[in-house]
Write a structure and sequence with these properties.
Glutathione S-transferase Yfyf (Class Pi), Chain A, domain 2; four-stranded mixed beta sheet; about 190 residues
């Protein structure tokens, strides 16, 4: 959740509310959208979470973004689904319940958002139930990272939810990963 700088020696700057407001000229010069994450390395600036994840996986040789074309396409498919279908579904209720934006949310829009979100989470439930607990290719990948963050919001926002046991198992598995502890805990929205 931040802008990292790595020009040989590592330096990390955390941005994003409530830590540090990204809607200031210094941060907007890096990402005009005012959103995290952003990576800055030796003058190279990259934003958009999926692009950042793919860059890091490729740069560090992590086997989180498969080299084989079809397996990589499946990971990309689920990452695209997360940003184009899953995230927009929870956007209104998420902003209303986690950030109080807008200050007086429309109850009908909240219910509509919950219905759309539930529909997408049922899609995820079906996918996870068919495999061995991972989103793509029966192995931990970038798709699990991005969907784990979306599932964290599902688990964090209080409303009546259907039982989705495969989603619950996947979420618990993502929470158990050491790198996830700071991002999938009770204090992180």
């Amino acid at each position: 959740m931040g802008a990292g700088r790595d020009g040989g020696g590592s330096q990390r700057e955390d941005w994003g509310k409530p830590i540090r407001d990204p809607n200031v000229p210094e941060f907007l010069a890096l990402n005009p959208n005012g959103q995290v994450p952003v990576i800055v390395e030796d003058g190279f600036v990259l934003w958009e979470s999926h692009a950042v994840l793919r860059y890091l996986a490729k740069k560090h040789g992590a086997n989180l973004w498969p080299f084989e074309t079809q397996k990589r396409a499946i990971v990309d498919q689920w990452m695209s689904w997360q940003s184009s279908d899953l995230n927009p579904a929870w956007s209104y209720v998420g902003r209303a319940r986690l950030r109080a934006e807008p200050p007086n949310p429309d109850p009908a829009r909240i219910e509509e958002s919950i219905r759309a979100w539930t529909k997408q989470m049922r899609v995820l439930e079906g996918q996870l139930a068919r495999g061995n607990g991972f989103v793509a290719n029966d192995a931990f990948s970038l798709a699990d990272i991005v969907i784990g963050l979306s599932t964290h919001r599902w688990m964090s926002i209080d409303f009546d939810k259907p039982a989705l046991p495969a989603v619950a198992r996947h979420y618990a598995q993502m929470q158990s990963r050491p790198a996830a502890v700071a991002y999938l805990g009770a204090t992180t929205p």
